[in-house]
Design goal:
The protein is α/β, with parallel strands linked by helices. The protein has helices at 17-27, 76-93, 116-132, 165-179, 196-200, 216-222, 225-243, and strands spanning 2-7, 39-44, 54-59, 98-100, 137-145, 156-159, 189-190, 205-212. Helix 4 (165-179) crosses helix 7.
């Protein structure tokens, strides 16, 4: 399987395994080549093809808000951050401008917000203000799913009402299914109006549920460096495909 990426380069470069090796080196991982490994092929475009566009990467939850958790207590917020940081590394390696809504597990809450509820509200409003302050921004918010029944598994992309969100969401969802969970029968869908961040931003925006932490097998996979790297690569590649669509 191939995902075609177009980079800001003056020459046509065929990366294949070379690109994988470079990304792996950046992240200090050891990913074995397999038949189902994602291979990225880079092609040239004009120098200013994505000039001015900014990929905004939102690691969902954080600080006092851990989100969902695995049966053994690993929080969604930590997995989200790990995937988001890998996305940033892949994007920057490919010459893509990025902005992170958070870069650590901790959040610097103001002293005036003394309750957990008030701090969560402050965090979400702060993220919205940051996102809406960026011109030509494109938001990918990273999350993990959970359900009372332990059987559901697989990723799903939810998209905002803003122009371009549905297209970005469908591209990302299709790539996640094709590359990482081909047995998944879910489809990209509009996000609930109850999600404050997604209903408040002005740019194309998607929320990616990478998998179910309530499913023991999938939770284990989501905690591996290899799978988190694959998620990061697929999501950044999807952003580039959207920009070129």
């Amino acid at each position: 399987m191939f995902i075609t990426l177009k980079l800001k380069k003056a020459l046509v470069i065929s990366f294949g395994v070379l690109l994988f090796a470079a990304i792996i080196a950046i992240m200090a991982l050891s990913i074995k080549e397999k038949n189902d490994e994602i291979v990225l092929e880079a092609m040239a475009v004009t120098e200013d093809a994505y000039e001015g566009d900014i990929l905004i990467i939102d690691a969902g939850h954080g600080g006092l808000d851990g989100g969902a958790s695995t049966s053994d207590g690993v929080t969604e917020s930590d997995i989200n951050l790990a995937v988001a940081l890998k996305m940033e590394a892949v994007a920057n390696f490919l010459g893509i401008s990025t902005v992170m809504t958070r870069e650590s597990a901790d959040l610097n809450y103001p002293e005036s917000e003394s309750t957990i509820a008030a701090r969560k509200v402050w965090d979400q409003k702060t993220r919205v203000d940051l996102i809406n302050s960026i011109e030509s921004g494109y938001l990918i918010s990273v999350h993990q799913n959970s359900y009372p029944d332990a059987r559901p598994r697989g990723s799903q992309v939810l998209y905002a009402k803003t122009e371009g969100s549905q297209t970005l969401g469908e591209i990302a969802h299709s790539n996640l299914i094709e590359q990482l969970n081909p047995d998944n029968r879910r489809v990209a869908a509009p996000i609930s109006e109850s999600i404050f961040l997604m209903k408040s931003v002005n740019c194309p925006a998607i929320l990616v549920e990478c998998g179910f932490l309530s499913n023991k097998d999938e939770a284990a996979i989501l905690q591996t460096e290899e799978y988190k790297t694959k998620l990061a690569i697929v999501l950044v590649a999807s952003y580039l495909q959207f920009c070129d669509s």
